[in-house]
Amino acid sequence: QQEKEDLQEKLKLREHLSQTAGRSEATPLPSKNIDLEMKQMQCKLKNSSNEITKQSTTIKSLKNEVQEKEERIRQLQAKISQLERDLNMKRHLIEDLRTRLKANQENEKTSNETLESLERKVKTLAEDCSNKKTSIYSLKQRLDVATKEKSQYEQMYHKAKDELEKKDLKLTNLESKMIETECAMTELETTASQQLHVLAKQSGQALETVQKTLLLTNDKVEEFMTFVKALTRELQHSVQELRTKIKQAKKTGEVIACKKSLSQESVQLAASILNVSTADLEEILEVEDDEETARTKMELEKDKEWLQYIQKLLEAQ
After folding, report:
1. Over the range 174-187, which residues count as b (16 or more CB within 10 Å of their CB) and which as e?
2. Cα angle for residues 255, 160, 278 (degrees, 5° grid)
3. Which of 295, 181, 306 is nearest to 235 (CA)?
4. Among 38, 1, 44, residue whose Cα is nearest residue 16
């Protein structure tokens, strides 16, 4: 650009000189030289402009190359940062793997120790199993004996149950008779009330007769009350007698069964072990169980409650 400006200044000077030469009408030789120089200068201008265009194109291409290289540098820097991150991650992974290796080696040691202890336990358990098998066999033999005894007791229980069912039937019959008596009482009361309504309409003489009939009905009611009380007492007494008989039958059955099962030699042996006579041993065998005594107490309490309930019914209107 500087060369271009210099050439333009020179052209202006030449033009000015040519104008001054034309005015002064100088010789034709210098004008020719000036034209030649002018042509040379124009050729130089063209050449310089061509070079400028070439250089501008080269500058543009160089700028594009520079931008491409900068982008490639950025890409490479990004790749480098990623590679550094990957390297750091791989280092961390290697450290983790080393720590895990150490932990696994320690775990292997502990697992080997536990395996040895477990093998010892297995051996001890096998010995225990063999001992338990022998104990199970002995328990099975005991079970067989117990099942036989159970079947005997069940037969005795069924017999007692049948007797109880018969007595329950008797009780139901007695209750039905009680209901019949109550129905008769209600009928008597209804007839008495009807007679009262009829007699209320009649005169005072009829009232006296009604009072007499009422007195008679009251006497009948009192008689019925006494009858019911006596009946309940007798019922309770008969039930208690039946229960005592059942207990005695159970006791006698158990004693007979025990005597049958036990021979005289075994009784004498048991008496000698306990340091007791045979008669005392039989008395010990005849002793009641705590459960049976508790049952008898419960039954007596229920009988008392039943008597109180009947007394409340009688006392009611």
Report:
1. beeeeeeeeeeeee
2. 5
3. 306
4. 38
Contacts of 240 by beta carbon, 8 Å cutoff, 6+ apart: 300, 303
C-alpha 282: how far from chain center: 56
Residues 37 and 64: beta-carbon distance below 8 Å:
no
pTM recorded for the entire structure: 0.27
Supply the pLDDT for residue 30. Answer: 56
**Confidence at 97, pLDDT banded by 50, 70, 90:** very high
Q: Which residue has the higher pLDDT, 280 or 302?
A: 302
Say whether pLDDT at 213 is over 70.
Answer: yes
Does pLDDT of 57 surpass 60? yes
Q: What is the 3-state secondary structure (H, E, C) of the chain?
A: CHHHHHHHHHHHHHHHHHHHHHHHCCCHHHHHHHHHHHHHHHHHHHHHHHHHHHHHHHHHHHHHHHHHHHHHHHHHHHHHHHHHHHHHHHHHHHHHHHHHHHHHHHHHHHHHHHHHHHHHHHHHHHHHHHHHHHHHHHHHHHHHHHHHHHHHHHHHHHHHHHHHHHHHHHHHHHHHHHHHHHHHHHHHHHHHHHHHHHHHHCCHHHHHHHHHHHHHHHHHHHHHHHHHHHHHHHHHHHHHHHHHHHHHHHHHHHHHHHHHHCCHHHHHHHHHHHCCCHHHHHHHHCCCCHHHHHHHHHHHHHHHHHHHHHHHHHHCC
197-207 mean pLDDT:
70
Q: How far apart are CA 156 and CA 251, in angstroms?
A: 11
Region for 27 from its dihedrals, namely left if φ exceeds 0, alpha if ψ lies in -120 to 50, beta otherwise: beta
Give the angle 18-24-28 at the CA atoms, nearest 5°: 60
pLDDT value of position 80: 92
